[in-house]
Each structure stands twice: as structure tokens, then as C-alpha cells.
């Protein structure tokens, strides 16, 4: 599966968010095939289209697709120099596909801030500097490693080393690589290094219940994110943890009272999903309607492989109905009659919402 690591300074509300995410509904027993580590939460991706499909197909069960969030606690200033459990935390971040950076945007005299004042600019910088310095360390090692080969005339080594030398000063200033202009060739040269500051990143601005408007802290986070081309999701983690405790009925009433159309967590999860460049396709049979996750740009056989590797290996064709056509024609039969049912081959690029039935050899 794809995962998003939750990072941030101590006491910004990471565990509160993580607990809300893990409580918000996945029954571990429904996912016996996943090993769930204590710091990993498997979270259903909210998608109203699934209920609409279920209303048409009337399956025995409906299964959402999921993504993972990993709680990466304890990143502090000095981590890149191995302070605290620094190296371990950086190693954990390295294994994630994307980063959700929680920033404290709430005042609360009872909750001590590590630097004694709420200061989103300084907080973001502190984390970004650690990540940049960790990348700088990788860059310096790589330059040393490549120097010999480059001297020996290895062309690839020469180009890669040149790019690394260009990004080195930027990292040395504590700046993330995502704010350094790199073209697609350069990015693909750097891919293998797994740089932390090139991972897709979003900021979770943790605000108080009344902190969504007229909140100078939130404005600061938005300004920083805009400069970096990053996304901001404002959410009140404390409120979300309360919402996550409720059963479905209570939750509906509580949200209505608050004037919210959905839990804020849903926005966090969807933002994470988008950040990872993921999209959803559906299988819709009488046994189950199920949502599946693929990378945007995945081909039909790759999508089949998400269900089972045998589906990919033995792929013959995909029967496809676009979501809107499926709904407008009240299901597969209607879509067929309306000429909206397609038979697609191995080069077909799956689109978000496609309802697919795979044909394969076993
Ligand atoms: P972590 O160290 O980043 O994991 O932070 P925690 O999730 O443990 O939160 C630290 C403290 O801040 C806890 O006492 C939370 O109840 C409190 N807290 C978290 N989110 C909010 C919030 O949105 N508003 C307020 N007022 N307090 C919060």
C-alpha cells in the first residue's frame, strides 16, 4: 500500500490526529492480510461514489480502498546530527511515500510548546532544516562516491555529480529540494536517492475549533506552503479525535450541529491520497462493490495487478464503464444498451472512477 508519514515537532497534535485517523473506522479484522504496526494506521478513503454504486448493484458488501498513515513521532532539532533518536526517525521518514507535516496553529496555555511560543514559521523551518540537512548528508556522501567514477570518465557519474553539486548549497542553507528548480531529466536522475525534501509534502495546520478564520498562524502556514507549491489542510485535530469516538448516528448529529458536511479527517485523507498521485477504480459485482487504488497513469494490466498478480500476468481485456455512465444508465446492463460499455486492451490508461471487470487467463 501507499503511505503518508505524519511528522512535526512535539506537542503540535500529531498523535491526536493519528489516533483520530486510526479510530475513524477501520476494523483491523477486516484486513487480516495487512500487518498493522502500532505506528501505522490503515484508513478507508472516503468516497461517496461507492455508496452510489452499491445503491445500483445491491451487493452483499461494500469495501472501501485504504491508505496508510504512519506516526513518526519525535523529530526534533538536531535529528540530522543524530540527536535524540534522530537517525531512526529520519530512516522512518525515508520509507514513506509522502509527508504530512503537522504545524501547531492553536494557542493553549496548558499545552507547552517546545520552543515556548507558537510560531509556525520557526516550527516549519526547524523540521525542514533537519530534513534538508539529512539530504545534504546523502548528497555529500554521493559526491564523494561518484568522484572516482567521474574522474575515470563515467559520463553518468559526471552528470549526476554535477546536479548534486548544484543542489548542495541549497540544502546547506536548510532549504527543501522541492523549492529548487529541477527539470524532469534532473528529477529522474535524483530519483534513486530518495531525498526526503523531494517527497510530496502537505501541511496539516492544526487549529482550534474557532481557528479556521482570522487565524494569523494559519495565514503564515498558507504563505509558506504557497512559496513551496505545497498543499495546506486546516483541521482541528482535537475536535476530530472527539468526532472519531462517536458512532455513526451520533457523528452525523454532531457534525450537523457544527455545521460540517463531513469530518475534517476526510479532507486530510483525500489530500493525502491526491498527494500520492492516487486514483480509484471500482469493481462492482453482486458479491461486492469494491474500490481499488492505482497510481494515476496506471494501465489496465497494472490496475488488474492490484487485485491479484495473476490478473496482471494473465490479462486479456478490461471491460470498462466510466463511473458517470454506469450511474446514468443504472448499471452495467443499461450502460451496455446505451453503448457505454467498452472493451479495452493492455495499453488502456485507467481513469478515476472507472468500473472495471477484468478478463484474464489463469
Ligand atoms: P504530538 O506530540 O505532536 O503527538 O502532540 P499531541 O497529539 O500529543 O498533542 C499535544 C497536546 O495538544 C495534547 O494535550 C492535545 O490534547 C493538545 N491538542 C492537540 N490538538 C489540539 C487542538 O487542535 N487544539 C487544542 N487546544 N489542543 C490540541
From TrEMBL:
<dbReference type="InterPro" id="IPR031167">
    <property type="entry name" value="G_OBG"/>
</dbReference>
<feature type="domain" description="OBG-type G">
    <location>
        <begin position="2"/>
        <end position="255"/>
    </location>
</feature>
<dbReference type="GO" id="GO:0043023">
    <property type="term" value="F:ribosomal large subunit binding"/>
</dbReference>
<comment type="similarity">
    <text>Belongs to the TRAFAC class OBG-HflX-like GTPase superfamily. OBG GTPase family. YchF/OLA1 subfamily.</text>
</comment>
<dbReference type="GO" id="GO:0016887">
    <property type="term" value="F:ATP hydrolysis activity"/>
</dbReference>
<keyword id="KW-0547">Nucleotide-binding</keyword>
<dbReference type="InterPro" id="IPR041706">
    <property type="entry name" value="YchF_N"/>
</dbReference>
<keyword id="KW-0479">Metal-binding</keyword>
<dbReference type="GO" id="GO:0005524">
    <property type="term" value="F:ATP binding"/>
</dbReference>
<feature type="binding site">
    <location>
        <begin position="11"/>
        <end position="16"/>
    </location>
    <ligand>
        <name>ATP</name>
    </ligand>
</feature>
<dbReference type="InterPro" id="IPR004095">
    <property type="entry name" value="TGS"/>
</dbReference>
<dbReference type="InterPro" id="IPR023192">
    <property type="entry name" value="TGS-like_dom_sf"/>
</dbReference>
<dbReference type="InterPro" id="IPR013029">
    <property type="entry name" value="YchF_C"/>
</dbReference>
<dbReference type="Pfam" id="PF06071">
    <property type="entry name" value="YchF-GTPase_C"/>
</dbReference>
<protein>
    <recommendedName>
        <fullName>Ribosome-binding ATPase YchF</fullName>
    </recommendedName>
</protein>
<dbReference type="InterPro" id="IPR004396">
    <property type="entry name" value="ATPase_YchF/OLA1"/>
</dbReference>
<keyword id="KW-0460">Magnesium</keyword>
<dbReference type="InterPro" id="IPR027417">
    <property type="entry name" value="P-loop_NTPase"/>
</dbReference>
<keyword id="KW-0067">ATP-binding</keyword>
<dbReference type="InterPro" id="IPR012676">
    <property type="entry name" value="TGS-like"/>
</dbReference>
<dbReference type="GO" id="GO:0005737">
    <property type="term" value="C:cytoplasm"/>
</dbReference>
<comment type="function">
    <text>ATPase that binds to both the 70S ribosome and the 50S ribosomal subunit in a nucleotide-independent manner.</text>
</comment>
<feature type="domain" description="TGS">
    <location>
        <begin position="277"/>
        <end position="360"/>
    </location>
</feature>
<dbReference type="Pfam" id="PF01926">
    <property type="entry name" value="MMR_HSR1"/>
</dbReference>
<dbReference type="InterPro" id="IPR012675">
    <property type="entry name" value="Beta-grasp_dom_sf"/>
</dbReference>
<dbReference type="GO" id="GO:0005525">
    <property type="term" value="F:GTP binding"/>
</dbReference>
<dbReference type="GO" id="GO:0046872">
    <property type="term" value="F:metal ion binding"/>
</dbReference>
<dbReference type="InterPro" id="IPR006073">
    <property type="entry name" value="GTP-bd"/>
</dbReference>
Amino acid at each position: 500500500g501507499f503511505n503518508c508519514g505524519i511528522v512535526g515537532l512535539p506537542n503540535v497534535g500529531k498523535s491526536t490526529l493519528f489516533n483520530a485517523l486510526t479510530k475513524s473506522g477501520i476494523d483491523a479484522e477486516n484486513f487480516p492480510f495487512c500487518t498493522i504496526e502500532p505506528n501505522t494506521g490503515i484508513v478507508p478513503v472516503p468516497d461517496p461514489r461507492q455508496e452510489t454504486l452499491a445503491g445500483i448493484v445491491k451487493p452483499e458488501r461494500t469495501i472501501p480502498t485504504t491508505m496508510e498513515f504512519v506516526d513518526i513521532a519525535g523529530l526534533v532539532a538536531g535529528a540530522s546530527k543524530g540527536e535524540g533518536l534522530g537517525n531512526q526517525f529520519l530512516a522512518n521518514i525515508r520509507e514513506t511515500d509522502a509527508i504530512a507535516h503537522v504545524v501547531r496553529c492553536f494557542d493553549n496555555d496548558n499545552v507547552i510548546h517546545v520552543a515556548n511560543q507558537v510560531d509556525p514559521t520557526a516550527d516549519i523551518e526547524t523540521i525542514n532544516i533537519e530534513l534538508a540537512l539529512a539530504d545534504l548528508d546523502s548528497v555529500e556522501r554521493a559526491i564523494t562516491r561518484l568522484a572516482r567514477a567521474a574522474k575515470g570518465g563515467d559520463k553518468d557519474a559526471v552528470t549526476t555529480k554535477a546536479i548534486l553539486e548544484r543542489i548542495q548549497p541549497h540544502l546547506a542553507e536548510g532549504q527543501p529540494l522541492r523549492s529548487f528548480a529541477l527539470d524532469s531529466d534532473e528529477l529522474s536522475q535524483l530519483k534513486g536517492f530518495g531525498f526526503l525534501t523531494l517527497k510530496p509534502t502537505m501541511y496539516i495546520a492544526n487549529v482550534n475549533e474557532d481557528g479556521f478564520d482570522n487565524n494569523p498562524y494559519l495565514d503564515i502556514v498558507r504563505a509558506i506552503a504557497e512559496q513551496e507549491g505545497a498543499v495546506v489542510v486546516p483541521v482541528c485535530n482535537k475536535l476530530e479525535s472527539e468526532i472519531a469516538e462517536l458512532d455513526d448516528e451520533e457523528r452525523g448529529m454532531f457534525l450537523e450541529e457544527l455545521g460540517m458536511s463531513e469530518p475534517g479527517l476526510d479532507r486530510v485523507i483525500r489530500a493525502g491520497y491526491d498527494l500520492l498521485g492516487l486514483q480509484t477504480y471500482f469493481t462492482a459485482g453482486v458479491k461486492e462493490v469494491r474500490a481499488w487504488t492505482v497510481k494515476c497513469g496506471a494501465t489496465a494490466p497494472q490496475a488488474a495487478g492490484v487485485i491479484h498478480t495473476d490478473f496482471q500476468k494473465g490479462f486479456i481485456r478490461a471491460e470498462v464503464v466510466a463511473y458517470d455512465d454506469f450511474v446514468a444508465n443504472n448499471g452495467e446492463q443499461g450502460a451496455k444498451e446505451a453503448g457505454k460499455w467498452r472493451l479495452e486492451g493492455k495499453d488502456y490508461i485507467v481513469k478515476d472512477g472507472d468500473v472495471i471487470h477484468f478478463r484474464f487467463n489463469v
